[in-house]
Amino acid sequence: MASEALAEEFEVLESIYPTELTKLSEKEIRIDVEPEEIVDGYDTLKLVLDVRYPDDYPEVLPELTINPSEGDLEDEEVEHLLKELQTVGEENLGMAMTFTLVSHLREKLSTLVHARYEHHKQEEAEKERLVVEAEEAKTRGTPVTPESFLKWKAKFDKELAVKKAREDEEKMKGMTPKEREEYKKLATRLSGRQLFERNKDLDAADDLLEEGTVSVDISQYEREAIEEEEEEDHVTFSDSE
């Protein structure tokens, strides 16, 4: 009687899965299983479900084996799917349950594929966010504290002074003693712009001390210092002096 019931179930399954089902023996079949929903543009998962029916089926559960035919499955994922199929089978003892088991497996495959797809999207979004942050960091000013700004300014002024001293020495080599004396006087005299720049630097330092940290474009300070130095290079001396 059990064999007749199984034969009838095979006949129904063959009509439902005409291309997916393969009959391996009188008591064993193989069904190709894929998700209910396919995610466009993303790798899917396909499984092979082997079902071996014991003599007492459907009063006892069939033996189930799952193997991936397309895509990868972790061992833990295979075990989880088998446990869920066992639970569904126990709920349907005494009845033909193969179609119910396959339907449940297709549903769970869809859930697994969608979860993987969402994880993939999150990874891509995180990569994009890191790229955007890196590009924004390149265009932002250098964040400094009052202490680091004053330390940088002292180092910059020292380097600028050493450079100017060397250039002055080279310039004065070709001057007469009178021209050297006049050049030294001009070098030690603060111009109106220099006085303004000094006051501006002091005010900037005070603002730093009051506000904590700011974003300072140090390259602007350097460009202005170089422009000032180039202006001084145009100093000329009249022959009458």
TrEMBL record:
<dbReference type="Pfam" id="PF05773">
    <property type="entry name" value="RWD"/>
</dbReference>
<feature type="domain" description="RWD">
    <location>
        <begin position="8"/>
        <end position="112"/>
    </location>
</feature>
<dbReference type="InterPro" id="IPR040213">
    <property type="entry name" value="GIR2-like"/>
</dbReference>
<dbReference type="InterPro" id="IPR006575">
    <property type="entry name" value="RWD_dom"/>
</dbReference>
<protein>
    <recommendedName>
        <fullName>RWD domain-containing protein</fullName>
    </recommendedName>
</protein>
<dbReference type="InterPro" id="IPR016135">
    <property type="entry name" value="UBQ-conjugating_enzyme/RWD"/>
</dbReference>
<dbReference type="InterPro" id="IPR032378">
    <property type="entry name" value="ZC3H15/TMA46_C"/>
</dbReference>
<dbReference type="Pfam" id="PF16543">
    <property type="entry name" value="DFRP_C"/>
</dbReference>
